[in-house]
Structures are given as structure tokens and as C-alpha cells.
Amino acid sequence: MATEFVFSGRRFSPDPGPIPAFTLTGFVRRFGTQRSPTTTRGPKHARGRALRALLGALLSFPLWVSPVHGDDAPPTAAPKYTRSEMEADLEHLTVRLKRAWAYAEDKRTWLGVDLDALHATSRRQIDTVTNADGFYRVVREYIAGLMDGHAGVRPGHASPALLTPRRWPFELIRLGGHIYVRSVEDREGPLQPGDELLSVNGIPIGERFAAMLTHSPGSTTAGRERRALDALRRSSESQLHIVALRGSDSRVQCELPTRTVPAAPVEAAESIRWRRLEDGVGYLRLPSFAQDMKVWEDGGRSPTALQAALQGKKTALREAFTALQDTHALVLDLRGNGGGSDALGHFLALFLCDTAAHPVYYSLATHVSEDLVVLPEFASYQTAPESARHRRIPIQLRHEPGIQPYRGKLAVLMDEGSFSACDCFLNYLAVAAPQTIFVGRPNGAGAGAPRPLVTLPHSRMVVTFCVMQVWNLNGQLIESRPLKPTFPVEWTVEDLRRGRDPDLEAALRTLAPSKLQPPRE
Q1: Cα dihedral sign, 277-279-282-283
Q2: C-alpha–C-alpha distance, residues 339 and 17, integer Å
Q3: CA-to-CA distance for 365 and 182, rounded, in angstroms?
Q4: Are 351 and 406 in contact (CB under 8 A)?
Q5: Do 436 and 354 meet the contact criterion of CB atoms below 8 Å apart?
Q6: Of 88, 116, 120, 312, which is the most exposed, with the fewest CB atoms less than 10 Å away?
Q7: Do the beta carbons of residue 435 and residue 410 sit within 8 Å?
Q8: Minimal CA–CA distance to 439: which of 509, 497, 351?
Q9: SS percent in the chain: helix, strand, coil, step 5
């Protein structure tokens, strides 16, 4: 096996289930330069000016932003709320979800999400609430019930009980309703991949998972379960007493310390990496579409700053495709890719798709409400014509020089952790490169520009949800519509114990020379 090349990056948020960020590109090409708002023209030109002003504003802001972990710290006091205050907060939330959530009607008809039922459940739950922490958990469960993987809630108070500054030193996977150790940080430790967890600190693991699931957002059921598993590893416990089952009858009991989560978001992210496998097959692992957040923030979150923040990953991808150009097939590993910037998806598509034949990456429409237009980035909607408020806008791909398309066979590894900007890329690829082989499990299926749109009047919790709808090239909503893999793969406990990667093995079987089709044109 040849040398493995690595591009090193940094993770700027230690939070599980990253919420991506994207700046709209393609509007400038479509609508041109803004005119001065003081120019005197007729009604038709006035409507054009309003639309261009709106689109110019959108260019300066991310499409996806974190709904839970903003820059402003919540108030330090932990207030107590009366029942009437909590009821008022829930009423405030429900009214605004019905009015401003882009997917309110679609989630009702597609998934059966009933806002009135969620509201009623939350009102019953506050009967047992004794403090602000409890009310925060009630609202979290309400928001998780939206089945919007980008939705979230930030507490309006500071509380040690809400902090999860530590994490378990092993990863989890759920197979057949049981929870197993997927991987361990210490290979010499007492736990091994494939061990079935029974309890942690005296609490059955099933109870822990069920409790976490009620508070975990996700656009699909599998996506929620994955988020719950990730969140399960985060806790305030410094020591774990673990009871596990190894094999069919060997019980393991052990003590393990948890790891401290860095207070500052500076831990290293998984790197972009690539290598040659056997039989002339290339492998490219892209763990995230995220940009360098420091460069982006320092540049004022402008489109120019975004491109600068993506330059490192673009350089790495150029190097990877140059190194793998002569391979007859490529495995692109997007498992667990939680998204980031669609601009990087555009860039990757230039290597893998006929972008001239498919110049539109996706289409989107903003769900305009009185709540949305108070946000500075959407203020232009106040004067925009009605036709501009609900129209679908096609987002054009951004072309770049010096791209040599890859001509070999392509297999993509995906799973329920492939989310947001990664979902948008997968949907584009499925249409623009129809010979692509998708291996693994359905993706997380989330897209829709979340914004922190609601501040509850008494608890001061900030609630985020999607304010745009996004359609793929087939005219289908991406949200909650996962792609079906060409070759579905289900992991087994034996795979864990033997250290196998059944997704990669299935992809390589499909790419075997005897099964290869002619290279893509």
C-alpha cells in the first residue's frame, strides 16, 4: 500500500452533531450588481431593486448556523418560573412555529408532526417541573419532536446541571436494539469493540438511550438515534462503572475515567486523507464540509472570507484528485460528514459531475413571516414584492479554473450521520452523476437554513428552526427524504470484533475489475 497523504484541519466546535454554515453563491451571477436604492425608476425597476437588495443581504449571511451554541453567553441567574409563565412561553413558541417554521405543513403531512399535540404534551409535563432546568428539558423535548435536524434550543439561564464537560472514552453503535462499543480510545483498556453495554453507573444503558432520544433532534428516525448516541457520550460524570457483555456469556465490569472536553473549541478535527487501495482503486475520506471558522469570522463572514476559509480544504482536494487521477475507481467516504459549507460541495462536484449539463446545485425558497423580517439579513423582504417572497430560487454552481474531472467509477459511502451540506451534495450527485454507486445506509436528510428566530418571553430560551425549504434537481424536498443506497449494508457485532469495515468492503466488491462499467464520460 502506498503512502497515505493527509491534510490537517482543525475543529472549531466540540459539540456533537455539527450544525453547518453556508453562504449563498450563485445569486450574484443570476441577478447582477445591486443598483443604488436612491435611483429613481418605475415600478418594475423598483421591484428589481428590492429583490437585488434582498439577495445582496442574503449573500452576507450563512445559510446554516448553530442553533444552540451562540457567541452570547446566557444570563447567569437561574430564575424560577410560575406555571402561567411557562404556559405563556409554550404558547409563544407554538404560535411562532406555526407562523414561521418553513416545514410546519410539510412535516405535518409527511411525518405526522402535530404542533398542537407537542404543545399539549409539554403543558402536561410542566406539572412536574420544579426549576428552570426542568422547563428547559421540556422545551428541548418539544423541539426534538419537530423532526427538524437543524432545530435546537439554547437555555436562557446558566446552570451547572446543564453542562456536559466530559465525554466517554469510547464510541457507540446500536445494532438490533442493543448498544455496543464501536471503538475505544485505549486499545489496552478493559473494553473492546463489540462489547455490549448493559449499564453505566448503575443505570441500564437502554434507559439512558431512551431518555437521550427524547431530547435529540433529527430529520429522520435514524438521524435522531445517531444524535442520541453521540449525546449519550457527553456527561458531567468523571468516573464510569460499566457492566458489559462480551460474547454470549462473559460479563465484564470495569471502571473508566471520562475525558475532559476542552473549554475552548480548539480540538483537532479528523483530517481529509486519501490513499491507493488494491487493484488500482482510490480512497478519499472527506469528514466535513466545514470551513476554517476563524478565517471566516475574522473576514466578517463575507463571501470572500468564506472562500478564504475553504482554501485549505480546496487545496487538499486538488492534491487528492491529482494523486488519484489514474485510478480506475474511487471510493468517496462521506460517512458521518455533518455538513458545513455548500461552497465546498460545489467545488467537489466540479471533479465528479458534468456541471455544465447540471449548472443548478439546488433551489430554495424562503418562508417569509413577520418574525423573519425583523432579522437584519431578511429585512429586505419587508419591501420586496409578493412574488419575491415565495419563489424558488435556483442556486448556480460556482466554477473554478484548473479542475480536471475524475473519469473513473465512483462509489460513495454514506450513513445517517451524512447531514446538511453533505445531504445537498449527495442529492446533487445522485442526479448529476447517475452512475454513482451509493453504499451504506440512508443519509440524515436535512436542509433548510435554521435561524434563532424565537426568544421565549419569560425563560429567555432561544429557539432555532428552518426558515427555508430546499429542493434537489428532481424537484423533491431534501429535508426528511433520505436517499436509498444502491447497496445497503448493515453492520454486525462480528464486524466490530474483527475490526472490519463492511461498507468499504461492499464498495470494493462493486468496483471489482470484472464488474466495472466503462469510465464515465
Answers
A1: negative
A2: 9
A3: 40
A4: yes
A5: no
A6: 116
A7: yes
A8: 509
A9: 35, 20, 45
* In contact, 464 and 153? CB cutoff 8 Å: yes
- Nearest-5° angle of CA 296, CA 405, CA 395? 50
Spatial separation of the C-alpha atoms in residues 412 and 487, rounded to whole Å = 10
Nearest CA-CA partner of 152 in 513, 439, 465: 465
Give buried/exposed letters for 90-123 (b at 16+ CB in 10 A, else e): bebbbebbeebbbbbebbeeebebebeebbeebb
Give the span between the Cα atoms of 436 and 410, in whole angstroms: 5
Task: List the grid coordinates of 177.
Answer: 436494539
Q: Which residue has the cell 482510490?
A: 282
Query: Contact, 334 vs 410, CB < 8 A?
Result: no
DSSP string, 312-373: HHHHHHHHHHHHTTT-SEEEEE-TT---B-HHHHHHHHHHHS-TTT--EEEEEEE---TTGG
Beta bridge partners, 468, equal: 366
Q: Are 137 and 212 in contact (CB under 8 A)?
A: no
Q: Strand pairing partners for 153?
A: 463
pTM score of the predicted model: 0.85
What's the CA gap between 392 and 394, in Å, rounded?
Answer: 7
Strand partners, 179: 174
Q: How far apart are CA 451 and CA 464, in angstroms?
A: 5
HSE-CB at 462 with a 13 A cutoff on CA atoms is 17
Phi, psi angle pair for 231, to nearest 5°: -70, -30
| C-alpha–C-alpha distance, residues 462 and 416, integer Å | 27
User: 234: number of CA atoms within 13 Å, CB side?
Assistant: 18
Neighbours of 429 (CB within 10 A): 23
pLDDT tens sequence for the chain (521 residues): 333 333 323 222 222 233 333 333 333 333 333 333 333 344 444 444 444 434 333 333 334 433 343 334 555 545 789 999 999 999 999 999 999 999 999 999 999 999 999 999 999 999 999 899 999 999 999 999 999 999 999 999 988 888 889 999 999 999 999 999 999 999 999 999 999 999 999 999 999 999 999 999 999 999 999 999 999 999 999 999 999 999 988 999 999 999 998 754 444 568 899 999 988 999 999 999 999 989 999 999 888 999 999 999 999 999 999 999 999 999 999 999 999 999 999 999 999 999 999 999 999 999 999 999 999 999 999 888 887 787 899 999 988 999 999 999 999 999 999 999 999 999 999 999 999 999 999 999 999 999 999 999 999 999 999 999 999 999 999 999 999 999 999 999 999 999 999 999 999 999 986 554 444 44
CA distance 217 to 142: 10
